[in-house]
Amino acid sequence: MTNSTNPTNSYTVPSVSIATAHTGASSKANELGMRTMQERAYAKRGEQYLLIKSPPASGKSRALMFIALDKLHNQDLQQAIVVVPERSIGGSFADEPLSKFGFYWDWQVAPQWNLCNAPGIDEPRVAKTKVEAVRAFLNSPDKILVCTHATFRFAVEELGIEAFDNRLIAIDEFHHVSANPDNKLGGQLSAFISRDKVHLVAMTGSYFRGDSEAVLAPAEESRFETVTYTYYEQLNGYRWLKSLDIGYFFYTGKYVDAVAKVLDPVLKTIVHIPHPAARESLKDKEREVNEIMSALGDWQGVDPATGFHLIKAKDGRTLKVADLVDDSDASRRSKVLNALKDPMQKNNRDNVDVIIALGMAKEGFDWIWCEHALTIGYRSSLTEIVQIIGRATRDAEGKERSRFTNLIAEPMADQAAVAEAVNDMLKAISASLLMEQVLAPRYEFTPKDTGPKEGFIYNGGEGYQSGGTNLGVNETTGQYHVEINGLTTPQSTEATRICKEDLNEVVTSFLQDKTVLERGLFDKENTLPEELTQLRMGKIVRERYPDLSDVDQEAIRQHAIAAMNITQQAKLMLAQTDSSESGALQGSTSLLEGVRKFVNVRELDIDLIDRINPFEAAYAVLAKAMDEKSLRQVQASIAAKKVSIPESEARDLAMRALQFKNERGRLPDINSADVWEKRMAEGVVAFARYRAQAKAAQGESANG
Length: 704
Fold this sequence. Notes:
The chain has 23 helices and 19 strands. The protein is of the alpha/beta class. The chain has four domains: 10-21 and 238-410, P-loop containing nucleotide triphosphate hydrolases (Rossmann fold, 3-Layer(aba) Sandwich); 25-231, 3-Layer(aba) Sandwich (Rossmann fold), CATH 3.40.50; 437-642, no CATH class; 645-704. The chain is globular, with a radius of gyration of 27 Å.
């Protein structure tokens, strides 16, 4: 968002602003009617286990149709079962005349086999009938069934995994699955993989979860062939949408008093109000909806055909507002939902102006005209943030700019629940940093002087420089090739794949770590960058990929830190450049230009990357956005949590000290002027103390 004059008692954080190339490549189809991502996925249609990681609106549903039809017609699979998280998403898999666009077959689902349209909800007391429907489908000659995650879970429990042999199971919104043993769907998928008699296609726009749980166990994930289509590729290839702004808006008082400052009635907007249990909620959702509508203008009544509220705005226009919060009248709610899902209105920009929702209109909700996703209260899941942003990133004629705004209560000096406010603040910064990674181009890092790569233009067209600093850009894919001194090269095929495809998942785990955020943002004076970049990230990588070798784990750690720091330092450098030229931070400038500037002017090596505080830019933004009193409260709350070196960190420091000794022939000196060397030495002392305590405890136990 642009950094305009701040409203009273509120602060705007211009976190991310991305300008796209709007090449139109995302919407261009080949002779089979496939767009870029769909063609990429279809090329791997013969894989038994396929994972498609692609952003909202990139065409995952149709990609699945192409793949499923080939498996049914050419790969001798008996049936295809499409599993979606909620009934409203089932509409994405309705009949499609694919042959009309050049494909070999049409996608057709018999009405009785789209269980998302069947009456009743997915609870055990009514799920029996849907389980029986699944049983009937498995015994029928028909080919395609669509159901919810819940129905599928109940069916597997009732019928057993062997009932699904020789079938394709396609899981939409795959991030709902978890490797946690308590996740039933995740456990069932593990059983399917162990039995190895089905084909699986998993699709998600955000291959990570808000609770830091892994989606799949590493051994199972390695069985999947991955198709990755990045947010950067998707947005860059749009025809109409030219820029996306992501910002955080901190307010004091009641959010309904601040909402008018960020709710622009000219923009097509989805407003997500806070959950009733959330700190920002007024505990009266009907009142909240009414006050939001009052901020838009004067209420004129309800359209009898659609159930939309009619609001006369200050500019004289009549706004149509869909209320998805009020569930007191089932018939009215059904009327509103039907009006929103009416296929005849999909391309009608004037069908509705504002949608106000609570738990709906998130993943899978397709309103191409949405220009502004306004979310009140921080969401507990980074996945949910990514999905909500996806509501505003559909490409539509004449829609050149879109934005996501998160309205969050600012910590106040007299606020009792400061700790909760601090937690929200940290999560907001985490989401902002994550989106910078998701929206940045993909990087490929190699050690110094490994040579140019085909298809890349180096150093702004000046060519590859032997012994120099080299940055290559593939203008077709938007990929960057960066050479770094001292970079560890992954040894195994799996580690190489992770470094090329899954760095965002590693970075996400890092950014979700509250200790990392607290120490990196608010305890910079007492936290060495290496404690975060080496120790904490090293621990995260080891826990995420326990079966990889030490060399591969270190390679992944270095690649992840490099990707995150290049993005953050590029943003900081760009902000400083713009400030010196114009006297103010320019929120509308492209982060990508900052990447070019940063990489071109620095001699990169792994020591430099490890020494950079990865949250420096985020801290600067937060400091600009909050007044001194509030920031002191945040820092005081975090300072209260400080502890001495824990045993696990002391062990990691001791291991780094051993590596230091192998490289330099001596142990780190606790009196060294180098703060990182001193910290390693302190870790050695602390670890020795822990070992002495453990031996003493064993001695007492033996004597006892």
